[in-house]
Write a structure and sequence with these properties.
Elements: E1 3-14, E2 17-28, E3 32-37, H1 43-50, E4 58-63, E5 66-67, H2 73-78, E6 80-84, H3 95-99, H4 101-106, H5 111-124, H6 141-154, E7 159-163, H7 171-188, E8 191-195, H8 199-205, E9 208-213, E10 216-221, H9 223-228, H10 233-246
Parallel strand pairs: 3-8, 3-9, 6-7, 7-8
Antiparallel strand pairs: 1-2, 1-4, 4-5, 9-10
Helix pairs in contact: 5-6
Bound molecules: adenosine-5'-triphosphate.
Adenosine-5'-triphosphate binds at residues 14, 19, 37, 39-45.
Protein name: ABC-type quaternary amine transporter
GO molecular function, one term: ATP hydrolysis activity
Domain ABC transporter: 5-239
Length: 268
């Protein structure tokens, strides 16, 4: 597998407070990495370093083999979609204008192409065409979240960073969005890094789960390995409840619903 993102000896401190130290991680192309850990452990900080929103105190971040320090940040961000919790849509723009924002910048002359791309992404994220002319305030929370995802995807990024994207929606919408995101991932082969507070979401969506506690990586493994062989007491506690829902001894966990991307739908 090809490496797409690498954290090399990363340290991040805010003033005297060290949030991440000796942070080393390799993300392979095409993985769906879910990131989970205690509150304030550095998940968002790690994510935002990938698109240059936060600079490390020391160490290097490589994206597609190149040190982002040497890259033009605007150019870097064109290849990296970013979706966060709640609505971060432009309030004075319609749904169509929001989704077409980046494609329009890249593709100014061919309006028809952009128009078709907007329709395609609206369909993929489950938004009705008739919502195109609405403004964000005229949409439900779930619809706003879908527009946010469509906007992040419409630039055809190689990498999609998602920071608790479903944190602000109700359980039912959340379940639907999870299924849609998984389908988008399977169709596009994009690399996703997805921060969540919910271990069952982390196990359900991730092909790999990154567990962090107090800035230290506890385990970076498949959902199955996390359940079958938790690497520390922290991971063990985190997955304990999920192990019980599987009702299976360790050696049969492979058949449980969290056996990774391909086994995801077995119990659905
Ligand atoms: N700009 C900042 N200045 C000072 N401290 C900061 C800043 N941003 C984050 N922190 C601190 O760094 C630590 C890590 O923050 P971060 O947002 O990365 O954590 P997180 O794991 O995403 O947290 P949560 O799960 O609560 O969202 C926290 O203690 C936070 O208070």
């Amino acid at each position: 597998m090809e490496t797409i993102i690498e954290f090399k000896n990363i340290k991040k401190a805010y003033g005297d407070k060290v949030v991440l130290e000796d942070f080393n991680l390799i993300v392979e192309k095409g993985e769906f990495v879910t990131i989970i850990g205690s509150s304030g452990c550095g998940k968002t900080t790690a994510l935002k370093m990938i698109n240059g929103l936060i600079e490390p105190t020391s160490g290097d971040i490589l994206v597609e083999g190149k040190n982002i320090h040497d890259k033009n940040l605007t150019e870097l961000r064109r290849h990296i979609g970013y979706a966060i919790q709640g609505s971060v849509l432009f309030p004075h723009m319609t749904v169509e204008q929001n989704i077409s924002y980046v494609p329009h910048l890249l593709n100014k002359k061919d309006k028809e192409k952009t128009h078709l791309a907007v329709s395609k992404w609206m369909k993929i994220v489950g938004l009705d065409e008739e919502l195109k002319e609405r403004y964000p305030l005229e949409l439900s929370g779930g619809q706003q979240q879908r527009v946010g995802i469509a906007r992040a995807l419409a630039a055809s990024p190689d990498i999609l960073l998602m920071d608790e994207p479903f944190g602000a929606v109700d359980e039912i919408t959340r379940g639907q969005l999870q299924i849609e995101l998984k389908q988008i991932y399977e169709k596009t082969g994009i690399t996703i890094l997805f921060v969540t507070h919910d271990i069952s979401e982390a196990l359900k969506l991730g092909t790999k789960v990154l567990v962090i506690d107090k800035g230290v990586i506890q385990q970076y493994d498949t959902p199955h390995e996390l359940l079958a062989h938790p690497a520390s007491d922290f991971v063990k506690q985190l997955v304990e409840k999920e192990r019980h829902t599987c009702h299976l001894p360790d050696d049969q966990l492979v058949d449980c619903k969290y056996s990774g991307a391909s086994g995801y739908s077995k119990h659905r």
